[in-house]
Structure formats: C-alpha cells, structure tokens
Design goal:
This protein is mostly helical. It has helices spanning 9-25, 29-51, 59-89, 93-107.
Length: 112
C-alpha cells in the first residue's frame, strides 16, 4: 500500500512562514492570525494521522510545521504586546502615529 501525504501540511507550513513576515508588517495581529490558522490545520492533520499512522508518510514535516507555527504565534504575541506598550507609553494613538510618520519621513517612505 502506497503511503499518502497529510493534506494540510504544506499550506500550514506556508502560513507559518508567512506569519513571521506578518508579525513585522501588522503589529503582530497578522502573525497571530496566520499562526492560529496553521495550528488549526496542524491539529486537524494530527488527528488524521493518529487514526491511521501507517497510511501517511510526512509526520515529521507536520511536527516541524507545528514548531514553526508556535514560534510565529509567540513572536506575533510579543510584537502585539510591544505595539500596545509603545502606544500607551507615548501618550496615546495620536502621539504614536506622529512618531511613526516622522520615522517614515526620515526613511523617505510616503505615509498615506
């Protein structure tokens, strides 16, 4: 009998890797969201694997994907907490946006 691959491992791995980039670009929210979806898919495949382990060949990839998703989730949570802390410590949303726009101006990035 030929072994199959678990159905959601590849998409979960892609989402886990993308969660790292989204942590930086969306103040952690995107990273948390993508890692959460990846962990949901990993748990679904884990249950599928446990029902019939002889039938599937890529369980080691599933474990790696789970690790990457957890790391992405932790980094996303830290990034979100840091953003919230920055907003609160600067005196609110307006002060945070003012400082952010100054940084963008220094870098030559238009903020619109």
């Amino acid at each position: 009998m030929e072994q199959q691959k678990l159905p959601n491992v590849t998409i979960a791995l892609v989402l886990s890797i993308l969660s790292f980039m989204c942590c930086c670009l969306s103040a952690g929210i995107g990273g948390i969201l993508m890692s959460g979806i990846a962990l949901f898919l990993v748990n679904k495949d884990t249950k599928t694997y446990q029902e019939n382990p002889q039938e599937y060949s890529n369980f080691s990839t599933l474990k790696t994907t789970k690790t990457v998703a957890i790391i992405g989730l932790v980094i996303g949570a830290i990034s979100l907490l840091w953003t919230v802390y920055s907003i609160v410590s600067m005196g609110g949303w307006d002060a945070y946006m003012e400082q952010t726009s100054e940084i963008y101006e220094q870098l030559g990035i238009p903020m619109e």
